[in-house]
Amino acid sequence: xxxxEIRDNxxxxxxxxxxARGIGSGSGKTAGHGQKGQKSRSGVAINGFEGGQMPIYxxxxxxxxxxxxxxxxxxxxxxxxxxxxxxGKLNAEDINVESLLKAGVINKTLDGVRLLARGAITTKAVxxxxxxxxxxxxxxxxxxxxxxxxx
Length: 151
Fold this sequence. Notes:
There is one protein chain. By secondary structure, the protein is α/β, with parallel strands linked by helices. The chain has two domains: 15-62, no CATH class; 74-149, CATH 3.100.10.10. It has helices at residues 56-59, 78-86, 97-103, 134-142, and strands spanning 74-77, 113-116, 126-129, 131-132, 146-149. Strands 1-2-4 form a three-stranded parallel beta sheet. Strands 3-5 form a two-stranded parallel ribbon. The termini are far apart.
């Protein structure tokens, strides 16, 4: 095989459809748009339009409040940390956001990392995270470790 003989697999590249090029082409005249009406024309923007009837998003009452300043944390549980320590992915003396990312315990940090108390931890671990629940801190300290909160 030579470089000039390399070709795409059969059917890997599809020819573009040329519409509105005469009735014999199969997609002439209406160019695949059907017949007449708003949807056959260009510039159609009718999402949520219900033909003049009051749309459902206006008929239903609005409730609640979305806090624009709410922080979204990446959640880490004690059992996940214990599993990573047992597997040798984490060093129990220094567990921080960077080491959790490197070990694959979390995928992304979002607004920080929050430690929660699901499961149990048996190893004496020094953990520094952005936020932690009281029960998680108590469980780590019971095992002889320490949790420090970093801003």
